Amino acid sequence: MTTLTRASGELRLEGVALSEIARRFGTPCYVYSRAAIEAAYREFDASLAGVEHLVCYAMKANSNLAVLDVLRRLGAGFDIVSGGELARVLAVGGEASKVLFSGVGKSEAEIDTALSHGIRCFNVESDQELERLDAIAGRRGVKAPVSLRVNPDVDAGTHPYISTGMAGNKFGIPHARAIEVYRKAAKLPNLRVTGIDCHIGSQILETAPLEEALDRVLGLVDALAHEGIALEHLDLGGGIGIRYRDEAPPDIHAYGRRLVERVRGRNLELLLEPGRAIVGNAGVLLTKVEYLKLDKARHFAVVDASMSELIRPALYDAWHEIVEAGDTGGRPRETYDVVGPVCESSDVLGRDRALAVRPGDLLAILSAGAYAMAMSSNYNTRPRPCEVMIDGETAHEVRAREPISALFSAERTLPR
Ligand code: LLP
């Protein structure tokens, strides 16, 4: 569902013109559409109708409290990867019983806190983590719910930096060792083996590798059942891609229906952990053109957003569509590299973009709802932008722009 439209030349997100957002809140600014987030979540949820299921939003994609709260109200669970993310879920009144804890490096403190809140399940990634979890649960006198993250060794066909399901990757327990590690888990006194999971990568555009991963994991479920280890849930992770440019992302409904077909009648709850597909195209990064540098060799549009606010182009060579937010009045377009003020040659938001812009004009960098603010930094002592959520005709500031003083308020000079 797209909630981005253009009327009389003006780009609007839901019922609000982006120029109005810039006037009220300044730039750079992330702007999210509540309706788009809700529609994407509902599509996942509805696609799994007919089997017991829970869609656990992978909040690393965008962990703003308002985003979490909108999803919590719809009944979403959450996939977390740190104690910080758990704190955010609890801050919006999320139920720990709908929280999955993923990640290869859970610390003792993180595990202990998560146990104290009674989260739904730990997605365990190694033998040593299993032992650590058992020991901490023992000290607390509880049984920790465990799922093993299995690396199914399938090629997700995505960027190597965001592909996680192949052998030789740091993630998960190799498929060949899964049964042996399950046997061990089943013997540890303070663990309760409840599920199995995998996550093979991100920005996946074909569902075949995901379905292959499901089949491999279902094979393990059957083998484990033979050994008397009955699992209650299967978590297929996230990874469904979105359209940034001209990609044809999978149809979520069709994907969900195929998963349902495969698990129906098995007495397994189906869990998914989508992140990008829920929020990615629900947000834009609004930025203002500061200068046009018209060098002979190249034309640059220098904007007030940078790699500090959107690192994906610099980090993955990712493409984000960049469009004029206001009326261009039919002026001819010229080709620019859209660059930020940060002192790095890689501070490029888009190369060779045809734009009709003048200094002071607004640009919208699209598909910035996922892994944008979430991966932002204060590099060059740049305050993080504000975040605004549109709800119909109303714009809510859901995070204030960072005051510069806050950037160094925790720092101290040496005693004189
Ligand atoms: N579950 C696990 C265990 C994950 O590691 C991830 C993402 C997800 C779920 C959600 O994946 P999604 O549905 O969003 O694809 N920063 C990169 C993406 C890194 C993804 C890391 N793991 C980017 O900007 O493209």
TrEMBL record:
Residues with PTM N6-(pyridoxal phosphate)lysine: 60
Entry keyword annotation includes Amino-acid biosynthesis: yes
Residue positions of the active site: 343 (proton donor)
Domain spans labelled Orn/DAP/Arg decarboxylase 2 C-terminal: 29-369
Binding site for pyridoxal 5'-phosphate: 239, 273-276, 371
Occurrences of domain Orn/DAP/Arg decarboxylase 2 N-terminal (ranges): 35-280
NCBIfam families: lysA (TIGR01048)
Name of the protein: Diaminopimelate decarboxylase
Native source species: Usitatibacter palustris
